[in-house]
Amino acid sequence: MIATNGNHPNHADSSPDSPPIAHSPLPVASSPLLNAYFASGCNAFALAASEKLSAQDLLDWSTNPAVQAQLAALRSLAEHSLALRTAQARLTALDILESVAKTSDDPIERRRAAAAIMRSPASPRAHAAPPRDPDPADDDADDDEDLDESPEAETDEIVALSQSYLAPSPCPKFTVETVAGTFREALYAPTEPRVAIRPFNLLAEKATCRGQVIPRDPHEYLSFFAKTFAHDTVIASHSLRFACEDRLNADRAGYVISLRPQAGSPHSEFFVELHRAPFGPHAGCWFITRLERMTPREPKPDTS
């Protein structure tokens, strides 16, 4: 039989009259870690780096029943927040579509906007019975029907990605290696939005690549990232090597990211430059100021 200490502050009375406890109290050392985890954008790797936790420390903390109960509550809140923000984004999109439908001089654009509004989840027609198959003899059932397709669903999803835990926001607790690491993580799958979005919110306002400002619209950014950083490396391992020209400036840094390939796969290298904001709303936070590709993408052999 396991002995229990009735004087322990976390000990629950086992009598039938005891009221149920919704959540076990957090251990004293766990509450600051939970706050740090939330501040890191719910990134376990960033938490471990910023708080200097070993793998075992992180596992011990995350598997604590009290911590798991709090994380479950946070997850429920995040899902609720995402639903609200998605609804707000839909309303904004509907306002834009309504403006286009009323003011555009292009009849095709007006028809596209009107069709998109009618397909909106808020529209009564969106919940109506499925439409009948088009009659081949009907003049409206032609190739122009494709012009009615609207990307609002994809738009909502991508905007939501840029506002989710997958794209952490600036945090003064993030080390420069943590921020540079988001670019390295994105390079693992640069054409996959849920991966490529990682460094999006950590880009400086005028961050550049090849002398051009990196797009700040999430859709344009994902398209740019896929085209610029796609590679054919089958990654076996990676490295992050400090490579800053201004070594005496503690607020500037640069790293070469090497993607080491498996046998028969090409090697790829990239560069990330960073700067720590000295003042403003994100004072003390590291931002990415430049991204570059150092090795060209090798053309695929012609198998024809």
Architecture overview:
Strands 2-1-6-5-4-3 form a six-stranded mixed β-sheet, with helices on one face. The chain is α+β, with helices and mostly antiparallel strands and 304 residues long. Helix content is 38%, strand content 14%. Among the domains are: 30-63, no CATH class; 167-293, Nuclear Transport Factor 2, Chain: A (Roll), CATH 3.10.450. It is built from nine helices and six strands; from the N terminus they run H-H-H-H-H-H-H-H-E-E-H-E-E-E-E. The chain has helices at residues 30-39, 44-51, 55-62, 65-103, 107-118, 152-162, 176-186, 193-196, 218-229, and strands spanning 203-209, 212-213, 235-242, 252-261, 268-276, 286-293.
Which helices and strands appear, and what pairs or packs with what?
Layout: H1 30-39, H2 44-51, H3 55-62, H4 65-103, H5 107-118, H6 152-162, H7 176-186, H8 193-196, E1 203-209, E2 212-213, H9 218-229, E3 235-242, E4 252-261, E5 268-276, E6 286-293
Parallel strand pairs: 1-6
Antiparallel strand pairs: 1-2, 3-4, 4-5, 5-6
Helix pairs in contact: 4-5, 4-6
